[in-house]
Amino acid sequence: MTVPAVLEAYRTWGLSTLSCEQLAHFAGLLVASPVNVISARSVEEIETRHFLDCLELLALPELHHPGARIVDIGTGGGLPALVLAIALPGARVTAVESIRKKCLFLKRAVDALALPNVVIEVARAEELALAAGRERFDVAVTRAVGPLHQVAELSVPLLRVGGMMVAMKGRLDDSEWREGCRALAILGVDHVEQLTTVPFPEARHHRLVIGRKVRPTPAGFPRRGAALNKPPRSTSAAVTTRRERGEGS
C-alpha cells in the first residue's frame, strides 16, 4: 500500500488513480522478483527513493509531447522506463537492457501492469545505435549508468536531431563535467545544462544533465567495447554549458 506522502507526491505530478495503482503494483513486483533488479527491498523504499526520483523527469516538457519516443538505456529493473510508461501512457517507451534475466523480469512486469506502450530491447545501447535505433528517438534517458562522457556516447547517437539527452546523475565533479561536455560537443550537442532536483527530503546531489542535439552524430560513434571507457577526442568541437539550475535560479 502506497504511503500517504508518496501518494500525495504522485498526485502533485498529475498521475491518475490507475497510474498510482500501477506504480504500487510495480513496486511489489520489484520486491518479489527472484532476480536482483534493485537494491531496495521494501515497497516504501522503492516508491520513495526510486519512483519519486524517476518522476522528476516529468518536469521536462519534451516528455509530454504526444507520441514522444523515449529510450531508457541500461534500464535494469525498469527505472525509469516503466515508471515513465505508467505516468505517460501516450508516450512510446523503449527499455534497453543487455542482461537477459532482467529483460525476462521486465517482460513479465509489462504484462502484469498491462503496459502496451513499452518495447523491451535485449541489446547493448551501442549495438542499437549502430543499427535500427540510430537517430530514432526524441528523448534518451539514463539513470546511474556511468560517467557522463560514456552516457553521452551511448545516448546521443540514438537521438534524432532536435532530440534531448537526459542523464540522471548524483555528485558530478569538475573533471567528469568537462569530459562529458567535450564528448557531447563531438557527438552533436551544442548546449548542456544541469537541473538540480530534490525528489525526496533526504535527497542530496541529485541532478539532471540535459543536452540538446543540433546536428547528426559523426560516423564512428558510438564506439564498442573498452573504447567506451575513454572519452572521445576532437580538437574543434565546443559546447555551451550552464553549470547548474534549480528552483529560484
What does this structure look like?
This protein has 249 residues and is an alpha/beta fold. The protein has a single domain, classed as Rossmann fold, CATH 3.40.50.150. It is 35% helix and 22% strand. The chain is built from 8 helices and 8 strands, in the order αααβαβαβαβαβαβββ. It has an 8-stranded mixed β-sheet, with helices on both faces. It is globular, with a radius of gyration of 17 Å. It starts with a helix and ends with a strand. The mean pLDDT is 93.
Task: State the main characteristics.
249 residues; alpha/beta; Rossmann fold; 8 helices; 8 strands; 22% strand
What's the topology here?
Elements: H1 4-12, H2 17-32, H3 43-55, E1 69-73, H4 81-87, E2 92-97, H5 100-113, E3 118-122, H6 125-129, E4 137-143, H7 148-155, E5 159-169, H8 174-187, E6 189-196, E7 207-213, E8 240-245
Parallel strand pairs: 1-2, 1-4, 2-3, 4-5, 6-8
Antiparallel strand pairs: 5-7, 6-7
Strand order of the largest sheet: 3-2-1-4-5-7-6-8
Number of domains: 1
The N- and C-terminal alpha carbons lie at a distance of 36 Å
Q: Quickly count the helices.
A: 8
Mean pLDDT: 93
Beta strands, count: 8
pLDDT < 50 runs, ≥5 residues: none
Named at the architecture level, the CATH assignment is: 3-Layer(aba) Sandwich
Tell me the β content: 15-25%
Named CATH topology: Rossmann fold
Q: How do you describe this structure in short?
A:
The protein is built from 8 helices and 8 strands. The chain is α/β, with parallel strands linked by helices. It has an 8-stranded mixed β-sheet, sandwiched between helices.
